[in-house]
Amino acid sequence: xLDYAEYTIDGDGYQGNGNGYHGNGYDQLDGEYxxxxxxxxxxxxxxxxxxxxxxxxxxFLAFAKVxxxxxxxxxxxxxxxxxxxxxxxxxxxxxxxxKRINGID
Length: 105
Hints:
Elements: H1 32-40, H2 52-73, H3 79-102
Helix pairs in contact: 1-2, 1-3, 2-3
């Protein structure tokens, strides 16, 4: 008999066995990086499948840079702020992709 749990897709858009582990290692982080991953995983499906892991890593770098600036100013970076950073990074990804495909003109 076919086990449907092996072929279901969880709420994050990832196919898996339902245990929440997706094999990228980011879900095992702690501290502020848990929030980074929570926000970033919402945006990885919006890029080309072959670029999703690179985009996830780029988001983490952008989050860390913005968080360092906020800490220097004595402010706290919220989930809403992280989503705004992710939207900017997503727009930049598609802008670069369009230029790469269609040329600079």
